[in-house]
């Protein structure tokens, strides 16, 4: 590409006003117009007329990819399995946005496209300070895109990688903000299903914003071919989420995930923010899934001594194996964290004395069986369960360290009670023995007359008395 073609491409995409482009071309010599556009591009970047990303795209012949409807792409933010994310500007409103372009294979069918826009409609009605707002969605040259609020800053995952774990106050503040956003979304009937530090943005003012709320399951389902006649957003056997933060029931079947699954993921996120890594380790996805189901809940204070005991207890309740043992609403999580941060007596009553029930040996197994029965998974679910447990149909959930400590205290108290009872019994027996010994000595000192007189007063034996009784009914 020469400089003349470079200017023509900018004119085609309306990157600069036509008058300015025409003036620019008049001031260039024929030799400059036929030379490479590098010098002109560097000058335009220096003046702030175009961005470096735009210049590279034009020189490489990809200028058409810089426009999506009324949006002009300024820079590339990131890329993942579900497409690219760009920083863009609305031409008329001059508003900076984040523009996510879905890959063509993800929206190759009419069913996929209709389903995508249905979920975009749900996400667009969410308006909360801690949720990234979805502004718009559209199609350009066969590519479907979603327009979202642009957040200056980075994700909590990026922050931890660069600076290490957060302070206790910082971590609690971030999780509390996320809980407020999720509480609002749950009230609107939307479950995220993929809460993790990488989906929590934080701007320079410290405001946490939840990414892709309402779109997580849509983007996953768009990448999975639909079975014939299937209209569900997720189908049996699909796993949606990130295994490092996924609730046990969610790894079994994504359709069973509810608001308590988001609570579990948020608890795992709190652990990552404070400790620097996820709660459960494993070399493979399968090992991590089994760890979430079977390994004891790791205590925060075992890794970090400055974590308040009340916060540790509540976190362990958030990532309980069974959904019924977790807080039953995100509103409860918000209230508990607010009380902890305020340091009031309410925090003590809300968090310190929480009972974390230890599930029965077959507690998680029976829960998963109820899921299988209610979701109609049937035999396929049983096969999945066998594989996930490494050949065993039982998912056992060991009691937490808090429960073990409680059992030990009860056993110690019981042993102390038995010792006290034994000591009291020995004292009674000793006193009784002394009394009997003294009586025998007094009897031995009595005279023969007294003894004979006592013998005369001795009643007749019970055996004789029985023989003289009249028969019953006689």
Which sequence of SSEs, written as H and E, runs from N to C? HHHHHEEEEHEEEHHEEHHHHHHHHHHHH
Q: State which percent range the strand residues make up.
A: 5-15%
Looking at CATH, the homologous superfamily of the largest domain is Transferase(Phosphotransferase) domain 1
If you average the pLDDT, what whole number results?
Answer: 74
The termini sit apart by 132 Å
Oligomer: single chain
Estimate the helix proportion, in percent.
40-55%
Domain count, please report it: 3
Number of helices: 20
Q: What summary fits the major beta sheet?
A: 6 strands, antiparallel
Looking at the structure, the CATH topology of the largest domain is: Transferase(Phosphotransferase), domain 1
CATH class division of the largest domain: Mainly Alpha
Rg calc: 37 Å
